[in-house]
What does this fold into?
Amino acid sequence: GIQVEQSPPDLILQEGANSTLRCNFSDSVNNLQWFHQNPWGQLINLFYIPSGTKQNGRLSATTVATERYSLLYISSSQTTDSGVYFCAVWGGNTPLVFGKGTRLSVIA
Amino acid sequence: NAGVMQNPRHLVRRRGQEARLRCSPVKGHSHVYWYRQLPEEGLKFMVYLQKENIIDESGMPKERFSAEFPKEGPSILRIQQVVRGDSAAYFCASSSFRGKLFFGSGTQLSVL
It folds into this structure.
């Protein structure tokens, strides 16, 4: 099945810093989504982005499907950005396969 | 405009009992997915259902686990004769066809 690798696994930022999270996938996909799991366990869908670039406030995402990767940018990070960021892809008939996530800690 | 509703939020069972987890999708969504998450790990796909049909159950253990999404009512994930290894957070999500997934708050199952 399709493999999803996320990097870095862990990231510590000072409040106000910027960061880039990466998601590599092993096969062509027709659906890619980014999620944030907050410290209370709630999963929030950040982006549905099979290709191209989208922005939502301080967050933006870019997917280059032909090169099999996606990037999530967080600018001016805040403590509320802490949690785990997951990339999930849907290739062929297999429902969304999740990567292992990037655990982000933003320190005031 | 209710999101995905899961209940119960916490479920405690003794070994050998049955666990039933419920999931009501976003209004208008006919696709439901169940995932399992162990502490400090990612989400593992279990089963994908559409109304009255199981589309993909490749991630679900062959024994003791079953899922349904009837024409009326919530989706149900059923675990029979629970064992300690079944302790985990179980998340349900819903979407339109291959659309954006919306997750519920999860059910934390603890097996004593």
Q: What stands out?
A: Residues 16 and 50 of chain B are 29 Å apart (CA to CA). The interface with chain A takes residues 33, 35, 41-45, 48, 55-56, 58, 89, 91, 93, 98-103, 105-106 of chain B (CB under 8 Å). The radius of gyration of chain B is 13 Å. DSSP finds no helices and eleven strands in chain B.
